Amino acid sequence: MKNKRISIKDIAKQANVSTASVSRVISNKPGVGKDTQEKIKKIMTEMNYKPNINARSLVKNNTGNIGVIVPGGSNTIHNSFFLTIIEGISRVIDQTEYNLIVSFTTKQHKKLLDTNIVDGILVFAPRENEIDLEWLSNLNLPTVIIGSFLENSKFDCISADEKSGVKISVENLYHKNHRKIALINGPSESYQSKIYKAGYENTINKLKLNQFILELSEFDIKGQETIVKNFLQTHDDVTGIICSSDNLALGVMNIAKDLNLSIPDQLSIIGSDNTPITNLISPKLSTTNVNLKQIGETAVSRLFIKLNTSNHYTHPINCIFPMDFIERETTAFLK
Fold it and tell me: Are 271 and 250 within 8 A, CB to CB?
C-alpha cells in the first residue's frame, strides 16, 4: 500500500502551529520566531517532509525548472567539455530549488520551449541548423548562451576566448619551427567552430603560412575515422595539428598511432579546453586551458539574475574567459 504523502497540515498539526507558519518556514519568509522555526524544521526532518514542487510553482507562478539546450544529440553526452560545464551549472543549481531539464535534439528543443515548462534556458554552443535564434528571442524567455560568443547578440554570452586560444596554439607550434600547421575543426554550422576557424585563419595569414582545414560533423572523431585518416595521409607534410576540442585531439592521436606516426617527434597535436582526460592519457595532451566549471557557474548565475529582475530582456552582456596554453607531451620542436 502506498504511503500517505506528508502535507503542510500534518507538519502544522505536529508542531501545534498554523499552516501559514509552516509555509513561511518552507519559503524562508520572515514572521516566524527562531525557536518555532527550528521546531518546524526538526519535525519536517523527522517526518521526512518533501515540498510539493508543482503546488509551490502554481503559487509562485513559475515552473521551478531551468532548461539546458544541447546540440549534437547523444554525441554530446560523452563530450567532457559539456560534462565539465554541466558540473559547474549543477553546483549553482544544487543551492536552489530549481531542477535541470536537458534537451538533446531539435524535436526536444521545440517541445521544451513550446510547452512553457521552464522559467529560463541555457543554450549550449548553438548551431544554425538546430535552433533559430531569432525565434528564440521572440519567445521572451530569459536566455543565456554558453560556449559561443555571438556578435550583436540579443542574449548574454558566456564563453572561452577561442580566438585567443587558437592563436596561442598556432604560435606555439610556429615558434617550434612548424610551418605546415593544420586545423581539425567541428561542424561548420556551429558558432563555436566558426570562431575557432576565424582565429586559425587570422593567425595563419599573419604568419604567411598555408591553410590546411578539415571540418567534421561533430567535435568527436567517432564515426569519422576514415575521413581523418585520409586527411593525414593526403597531407603527410603537415607536422602540427590544432584541434578545436580535446575529444578531437584524442581521436587524432589514436589515428596517428595507427599510421605509425610518432607523437610528438613526427606530429605535434594540440587540443582545446583542458578537459580532465587530457592529463590522464599517454602521451599527455598539450592543450589550451579555460575554467569550464566557472563558465557553467557564471552562466547559470547570470540566468538567475535575469529571472529575478524585471528588465532581464535588455542589456545583454558578454563574459569571455581567457585561455592559456598548457605544454605537455604531444608538442615538440620540429627537427
Answer: yes
